[in-house]
Design a protein that fits this description.
single chain; about 10% helix; elongated; about 120 residues; four-stranded antiparallel β-sheet; 2 helices; 10 strands
Length: about 120
């Protein structure tokens, strides 16, 4: 996994999608309530894929998502608890592949920096 500064990717990630969200006619995304969705762009019909396991308060926390061909990686910074957690899911089944607390990253985050973890298949 590669840790990168997210400033250049913030516009895409903040909306629950990333560069690889689109596969064929399917657009995968994550809503503010922690649900992963797939929308058929030809019909506009969405179906819920699965629910994320991490807790998230969209008024105070920061969540960054990154889709790859086979996975969804979600990094959540819980501001109140000052915790950063990475959870990687199988993109199709929602099975949790990896769960990692990132205490060293949590210590480095301040109001001016946003971080993401990009997964590789």
């Amino acid at each position: 996994m590669k840790i990168t500064d997210l400033h250049s990717r913030l516009r895409r990630a903040i909306n629950g999608s990333s560069q690889q969200s689109l596969r064929g006619n399917d657009f995968d995304w994550v809503d503010d309530f922690g649900r992963a969705w797939r929308t058929d762009i030809t019909t506009g019909i969405s179906q819920k894929l699965f629910e994320l396991v991490d807790s998230y308060d969209n008024s105070t926390d920061t969540r960054v998502v990154d889709f790859t061909e086979n996975a969804l990686t979600v990094v959540t910074f819980q501001q109140e608890a000052e915790e950063v957690r990475l959870v990687q899911y199988d993109r199709n089944s929602g099975e949790v592949l990896t769960e990692i607390d990132l205490p060293d990253i949590a210590k480095t985050i301040d109001d001016s920096s946003i971080w993401a973890v990009s997964a590789r298949d």
